[in-house]
Design brief:
The protein is built from three helices and three strands; from the N terminus they run αααβββ. The chain is an alpha+beta fold.
Length: 133
């Protein structure tokens, strides 16, 4: 008899506890899901920004080296640059500076637009026909 009363008391306690907590997971999910989605979109945008910046640095290096050898630097940089990138090459004395700027796709319409850039500097090679921006 004692064990039956103890068992009924445990069961009754569980029903009351479950009734108080009913629907709490749905409410927590509804409150937390937008924040999780924002973090996901921001994280994906950050990964894309790092990848695009690496492409900009590679393209700037190729543009600077090509211009230092006497080849058209902007054309060489455009071959390696990410889509939609702007390549600029300047010559100052015995140095060639190449800068590549590219927009980053943002995952999510409300996130701000980002632009990343990469810059490289190369010395003009002796005996070359002269740097070409």
């Amino acid at each position: 008899m004692v064990s039956g009363a103890v068992q009924r008391g445990r069961t009754a306690g569980r029903r009351q506890w479950g009734a108080r907590e009913r629907g709490s997971f749905t409410a927590e999910l509804a409150a937390g899901l937008p924040a999780l989605m924002l973090l996901l979109f921001a994280g994906l945008t950050a990964v894309d920004a790092v990848t695009t910046r690496a492409g900009c640095v590679d393209a700037a290096r190729e543009a600077a080296l090509a211009a230092a050898r006497g080849e058209p630097g902007s054309a060489a940089g455009s071959r390696y640059a990410p889509a939609g990138a702007d390549v600029s090459v300047t010559v100052a004395g015995d140095r060639v500076t190449a800068t590549v700027r590219a927009p980053v796709r943002s995952f999510g319409a409300r996130l701000p637009r980002l632009t990343v850039s990469g810059t490289a500097v190369a010395a003009v090679e002796p005996g070359s026909p002269g740097p070409h921006p």
